[in-house]
């Protein structure tokens, strides 16, 4: 093996190539499905060789996992989602209203709470008008605690 040299420019080029491969893979896996997407097809879409993908990811399943991680977490850092700062901040909130305010403010990316990723921010600004006689707030709201939700 030869001596490997590294430079900031080469590192950035490699990172850009990796991002391009992952974006192409995510798009093809989503559109075509896992079985119908070949490493060669991802390579063509990303403008690299199939060997480059094999060198970077090792296998098609590893490529799928990396594409999934980037889609879910926003990057492919080797940090579990639950240990990321955004997710930890959400888990520390125990008030449901605070959770909603944080989600609606845009300070909490969908990746911090994956089950909310399909819930667009536009839902935060309801145009519904309360009807007379219908309470808009509960006198004793449920609270989120570390062990679950309290009864009203």
Can you offer a commentary on this structure?
This protein is an all-alpha fold and 152 residues long. The chain folds into 2 domains: 64 residues, Arc Repressor Mutant, subunit A (Orthogonal Bundle), CATH 1.10.10; 44 residues, no CATH class. The protein is 48% helix and 3% strand. The protein is built from 6 helices and 2 strands, in the order ααααααββ. The protein has a two-stranded antiparallel ribbon with strand order 1-2. A hairpin with a 2-residue loop joins strand 1 and strand 2. Helix 1 crosses helix 2, helix 1 crosses helix 4 and helix 2 crosses helix 3. The radius of gyration is 22 Å and the shape is elongated. About 11% of the residues have low confidence.
């Amino acid at each position: 093996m030869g001596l490997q040299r590294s430079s900031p420019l080469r590192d950035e080029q490699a990172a850009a190539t990796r991002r391009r491969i992952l974006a192409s893979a995510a798009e093809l896996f989503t559109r075509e499905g896992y079985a119908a997407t070949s490493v060669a097809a991802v390579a063509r879409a990303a403008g690299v060789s199939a060997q480059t993908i094999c060198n970077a990811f090792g296998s098609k399943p590893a490529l799928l996992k990396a594409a999934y991680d980037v889609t879910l977490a926003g990057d492919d850092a080797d940090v579990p989602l639950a240990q990321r700062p955004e997710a930890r901040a959400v888990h520390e909130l125990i008030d449901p209203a605070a959770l909603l305010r944080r989600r609606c403010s845009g300070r909490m990316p969908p990746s911090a709470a994956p089950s909310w990723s399909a819930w667009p921010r536009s839902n935060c600004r309801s145009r519904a008008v309360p009807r007379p006689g219908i309470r808009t707030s509960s006198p004793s709201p449920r609270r989120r605690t570390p062990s679950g939700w309290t009864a009203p």
